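One record is kept unedited as follows:
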Amino acid sequence: MRVTAAQAIVKSLQAEGVEVVFGYPGGVVLPLFDALYEAEGIRVILTRHEQGAAHAADAYARVTGKPGVVIVTSGPGAANTVTGIANAYMDSVPIVVITGQVATHVLGTDAFQETDITGITIPITKHNYLLDDAEDAAQVMAEAFHIATTGRPGPVLIDVPVDVSRGELTFKYPEKVSLPGYKPTVKGHAKQIKEAANLIAKARKPLLYVGGGVLSSDGARELKELAELMQLPVVTTLMGKGAFPEDHHLFVGMPGMHGGKFTNYAITETDLLFGIGVRFDDRVTGKLATFASKAKIVHVDVDPAEIGKNRSVDIPIVGDARTVIAAVTAELRKMGAEPRTEAWMRVIDDWRARYPFHYHQSATSIMPEYAVERVRELTKDRPTVYCTEVGQNQMWACQYLKIREPRTWASSGGLGTMGFGLPAAIGAQLGRPDHLVIDIAGDGSIQMNSQELATAAINNLPVKVVILNNGYLGMVRQWQELFYGKRYSSSTLPQDCPDFVKLAEAYGAFGVRATTPAELDAALTAAFEHPGPAIVDVRVEREENVFPMVAPGGSIDEMLGGIPGGPVSEMLDAEEFVEEVWE
């Protein structure tokens, strides 16, 4: 049976089991949208901006483990996806972006709505294609999904000229894809796995340093098994949240610039840092020369380019996180290794008790930390996915929420994209319709993509947006306070412009405001119980800062704010204590 390339692309989506497509139509992509019109099993979500489509597909992929799909038109439509593509690339999220393109005979002539989107996205895609022959449509689609979802996941873009989309072919979807130049390593080297297991067995102060690679590989169960077998404390990056239950005694928090003091002290004192699916990001490491300087480093990553890129390592292991973790656990069992971390955990527990996250409660003002705590407490007994915008709101969410299950957290990590949270919540709600989905937002970030409230309302997606409204670009203002003499240049936002309650109502959503601690629970509960999308405008203390904080270029054990405490050596000599108990 002969079909058009546009129809072949839709049939390819069906063959890949795609259930949701996010997009926005336009002239040169109409053959594709026409083919989608009666496509069985595929729901098309019309967002109000192409960036929103990309973020929604991104979060859909994060919460389901399936690739997200975006279809947009050429020129500005394609260009508007660039931020979302870059966000997915930085966070290793599998999405497939299909863009319409002008006809092949006018390519390169600056035709109406022509943009070289393949050229633009080379640095921010795992791979991209310009489809120049209709006969290749099915093969290119199969390759795109294979590349996006294997090895280190990431975005793949397919640019489809309108005349090619109308060309015909005999459709047959490839049963398997074989790309000679692309063979990701899954199994770690046996010798290196054995050496890593030996280091764990001998370490007195080991620490598992876990990132998004564990979630990408669906390795949370294997990680928990390893941690509990050897009683290894676990720290997770912002991207790794949910890989290990945060109510578990072995969980030691998120490290880095706004991590806990107790977490950063643990990294400073560890003698074995076992990194899994992490990239030693600058927001985690601070000053590299002092990061885990007492430790041997094991680094597990499916992307060999990440190993040794930022931090030299003692044992490099290239491989899939879940597979490598399982192999290390099996080796430890074979060795008959036993836990030896009791003294080390007592040190960590001492730091955790002395230096918890804290804030000064107010009887009249809502502290943003308190607002996040109330969200946590009011949702602790129901399945919930938490999304965030970017800024102070994101860091308070990291500090005060407890993520207990994999794929129930979606936040922009590497790119730090303001405007991510609301469209992400939409994608997450479609991916997890049985979950309550909450976006922890700031009044600045939410306005980057607030038009997506229409998408939520029209599709009856009951996403909840909790805005920590402080009338500032909060993180910018915090840096200006601490490092620029309180010169608040272009960081002040009027709290009443817009009126978020009226904005919600204008889109057909539910809006409610809380201005005092006494009003907060009722407002949150009303929003959470409302059957449709809702906004809670929480008027928080305006100049509250996110602490602790590592100053730019500083060592992670030298933190501003929080409960006072100097470097580790001034508080508790972990080395002497562990040595004493060990002996």
